[in-house]
Amino acid sequence: MIKNNKIDFRPFYQQIACSNLSHWLETLPLQLSQWEKQTHGDYSKWVKIVDFLPHLMADHIDLKSAVKSTRDFPLSTGEQQRLTHHLKQLMPWRKGPYHLYDVHIDCEWRSDFKWERVLPHLAPLKDRTVLDVGCGSGYHMWRMVGEGAKMVVGIDPTELFLCQFEAVRKLLNNDNRANLIPLGIEEMQPLAAFDTVFSMGVLYHRKSPLDHLTQLKNQLLIGGELVLETLVVDGDINTVLVPTDRYAKMKNVYFIPSVSALINWLEKVGFKNVRCVDVEVTSLEEQRKTEWLENESLIDFLDPNDHNKTIEGYPAPKRAVILANK
Questions:
Q1: By CB neighbour count within 10 A (0-12 exposed, 13-18 middle, 19+ buried), where does 151 fall?
Q2: Is 188 annotated as a binding residue?
Q3: Where are the beta strands (DSSP E) in the chain?
Q4: Whole-angstrom Cα distance, residue 307 to residue 315?
Q5: Degrees (nearest 5) of the Cα angle 57, 59, 60?
Q6: Is 71 annotated as a binding residue?
Q7: How far is CA 75 from each of CA 71, 81, 226, 318, rounded to the nearest angstrom?
Q8: Is residue 220 within 8 Å of 130, Cβ to Cβ?
Q9: Band of pLDDT at residue 158, cut at 50, 70 and 90
Q10: Which residues participate in carboxy-S-adenosyl-L-methionine binding (predicted)?
Q11: 134 has binding-site annotation
Q12: Does residue 204 have a known ligand-binding role?
C-alpha cells in the first residue's frame, strides 16, 4: 500500500500484532522509520511508478504453478503497452518470471527452475509462517503462498526490489499474505517465530558465514526447517574456495564451501538432521540476458572457451540445496 509517496507498512504491523510475530513490533517500526530517512535517491521515483500502475482486478490468480494474474477480458493493446512501459521503468528484473495481465516479465533468472528443484523436498508449507531471507523481488514468496503458507515475510534491503514486489502485489489484487520488509537478517532481533526459513543465494555474500547460519537459526521455532541454497565447490569437509578478488565478476563473494564443509558448518552452529537434497550446475537457460535486463548475465561471467570455468578461472557456478532443522 502506498500513501503520501511512501510504502505504508502499517497494514503489516496490524497483521502481525495478533500473531506469534507480535514481539517484532518492539523494534520494527523504529527501524523502518530510520530506514526511510536513508533510502536510495531513486526510491521516491520507483514508488511513484508503482502508484501509477493501473488498479486492475484479476479474475484468475495462479500462484501454484506460476505467478500469474489474468482477466476474462484481456487488456487492450494500448493498456498492455502502458503496463509494460511502467514495469520496464523498474528494471532490471532479476528473479521471476511473472505473467501479469498479458505482460510477461521475462526476468534474468528462471527462478521457477530453482523452485521446482527445492519444492519436492520441503516440509509442507501449508499453514506455515515463513521467512525468506534475501528475497529479491519476491518471486519465491508468491510460490510459497501458492503452497498454502499462512504468512510469508521476505527481507531484503534493496529498495528497487521492494518496489518491484509492491508492483507485483498490486497486480495480484493486493494480496497481503506476502510482505517484503527492507532489512537485512543482521538487523532482525532473534524472533524464534518461523516454521520455515529460506536463505537462497545469500550465504556466499556474507563475510561471516557461521554468523549468518546462526542468525537463520535464531529466527526458527524449535523443530522448524531451514532451506539453504548456495554456491558450492567439489571437495571434502575441509574444502572452501575463497576467491582472491572476484568470482564470476562478483566482488562480494567470500566463501564457497564443499557440500561436506557446508554440512559441517550447519552442525557446528547447532542444526540437526542436516542433509543435501540437490546439487545442480547453473545453466545458461536458467540465468540469461532478456529484454528486462540491461546488464551482463551468466554467459558473460564464464570463460568463453570453457564454460566449466568462470572468467577468472574458478569452477563454474554450482548450487546445492541443504535442509536442516533447529
A1: buried
A2: no
A3: 2-3, 6-7, 60-62, 68-70, 95-96, 98-100, 103-105, 109-110, 129-133, 151-155, 178-181, 194-200, 220-231, 240-241, 256-257, 272-281, 302-303, 306-310, 318-325
A4: 9
A5: 120
A6: no
A7: 8, 9, 41, 41
A8: no
A9: very high
A10: 95, 109, 114, 134, 156-158, 185-186, 200, 204, 319
A11: yes
A12: yes
219: which 3 cell numbers?
A: 529466527
319 is in an annotated binding site: yes
- 257 belongs to an annotated ligand binding site: no
Output the CA angle 263-137-23, nearest 5 degrees: 70
C-alpha cell at 322: 541443504
Continuous H helices in the chain? 10-16, 28-36, 43-52, 77-88, 111-118, 139-146, 159-170, 209-219, 259-268, 298-301
74 is in an annotated binding site: no
Q: Is 5 left (phi over 0), alpha (psi -120 to 50) or beta?
A: left
> Which residues sit opposite 319 in a β-bridge?
231, 280
- Give the pLDDT of residue 39: 87
Residue with cell 571434502: 236
> Residue 280: beta bridge partners?
319
> Was 200 annotated as part of a binding site?
yes
C-alpha cell at position 124: 509442507
Rounded Cα gap, residues 270 and 266, in angstroms = 7
Whole-structure pTM value? 0.97
Q: What is the per-residue pLDDT for 1?
A: 72
Residue with cell 520455515: 196
pLDDT digits (tens, 9 = 90+) for 11-56: 999 999 999 999 999 999 999 999 999 887 899 999 999 999 999 9
Residues in the chain: 326
Average pLDDT over the chain, rounded to an integer: 97
For residue 250, what is the DSSP state? Answer: B
CB 130 within 8 A of CB 149: yes
- The answer to whether 185 is annotated as binding is yes
